[in-house]
């Protein structure tokens, strides 16, 4: 992988990780469409993607730093909203566990899909269908926001998050869709989705970092290039988060539809090109 290709993939990761359009799906599909000589079966490829996820996790921590400070203060029994902060932490734990367990148990199976761009293209189109369905299943938003979720609802949202292990299905899209289905507004669903993403993305990065170091020692993608790519992903992820939070606050009616139409068009076109043209 050249330096330019790595930087472009990093920018793509930063934009698409938070947008409900599947960053992993794009990372699998785009190199094949552009004819890049990227060995997606290489032991270095997945850890490289995880380094990009570390940059994304850092961007989310930076953007939502007030929320995490309040959660930390709640753990320590400080501040005025201790009970609410502790409840939000409990909800995040309930939402994190399902994806963590499923990812651990089925990691090898999902790895086999990473080098199959045709499969990713089909799932990207399916992601568009899921987003459209989420808007149809949306319930009237409650006034309590994410703090009013039950543990069962938070676990359901977390279970949907596990679907993003399949390239083409969007983690943020699935969790925001589930949030709408249990009564969150678009803005609250996005906020809870992004808070929920932080421990999952950061945890995956920490687990895969030793593999990245081992892969680079064997002549894989360089550590310096991976770190630079992670920084690029972090900057673009921060900008994407800021844009999306403003977008969902000002577009409450069928706000997921534009992303759904994009996924349907991009996934369908990519599948046709990959299966019958390239």
List the topology elements.
Blueprint: H1 3-16, H2 23-34, H3 45-63, H4 65-75, H5 82-105, H6 107-111, H7 117-137, H8 151-161, H9 171-181, H10 186-217, H11 223-250, H12 257-277
Helix pairs in contact: 1-2, 1-11, 2-7, 3-10, 3-11, 4-5, 5-8, 5-10, 7-9, 7-12, 8-9, 9-10, 10-11
Strand content: under 5%
What count of helical segments does DSSP give? 12
Number of domains: 1
Q: How many β-strand runs?
A: 0
The major β-sheet equals: none
> Termini, distance in Å?
20 Å
The outline comes out as: globular
| Average of pLDDT | 84
Q: Which consecutive residue ranges, at least 5 long each, have pLDDT under 50?
A: none
Description:
It contains twelve helices and no strands. The protein has 278 residues and is mostly helical. It has one domain. The two termini are 20 Å apart. The mean pLDDT is 84.
